[in-house]
User: Fold this.
Amino acid sequence: MNAISLEGVSKTFRDFWLRPTVKAVDALDLEVEKGEVFGLLGPNGSGKSTTIKMILGLVAPTAGKVELFGLPPRSVEARRRLGYLPELSYLHPFLTPVETLRYYAGLCGITGKEAAHRTTELLKMVKMEEVANRPVGGFSKGMARRVALAAALIGKPELLVLDEPTSGLDPVSTKEVKLLIKALAKNSMTVLMTSHLLADAEDVCTRVAILNRGRKVADGKIGELGESLEEFFLAKVGEADEFVLADFLA
Assistant:
């Protein structure tokens, strides 16, 4: 059984009068196996965010079927097995990392000694022990990102969905996050990540799928897509047109 399965999934957004306006995802088939790091790539407007929302159960597909471990994504059991790191981390500015993780542990039904142990363990994992009792409102974007990642892991998810996991991180922090993703996969966690940074996907993903205008245009193992993921990506989605500035600069 796959961790994620999408069969013929489409999503059409409608206006106030229920007239179709945008077909964000069109007949998408996708399978993510247990224990792999899978990259969902594509330019802006390709349907990545809508696909992630359908996998999380935040948006219902117009057509097709979405399953997590063979379960509907909105089921309680599926959500127990899921962790999510959004692209933008919204943390309560007056809570410390310890308080933040204890709060999320409570939402997952984890209390007492187990919650305390998981909090200490995760703060050490993301290297935030020294600032564990400072309010997160004073943190840099990279530091807040680490706390948010720890929060996504507090419930020991079997499937971790990461939306732009290295967004806003410095090179050292980026390397640490990528090493952490690899370590999680080695411990049988399934990771689905989106990224605009193809080098990050190339470093950590075992397989990728490329979306363009709502449709899957390619998928496969990293080593089978050619020497450069960037060149393969541009060949599939089309290189940007060269800007013509002659009239503007005249």
Q: What stands out?
A: The CA atoms of residues 178 and 200 lie 8 Å apart.
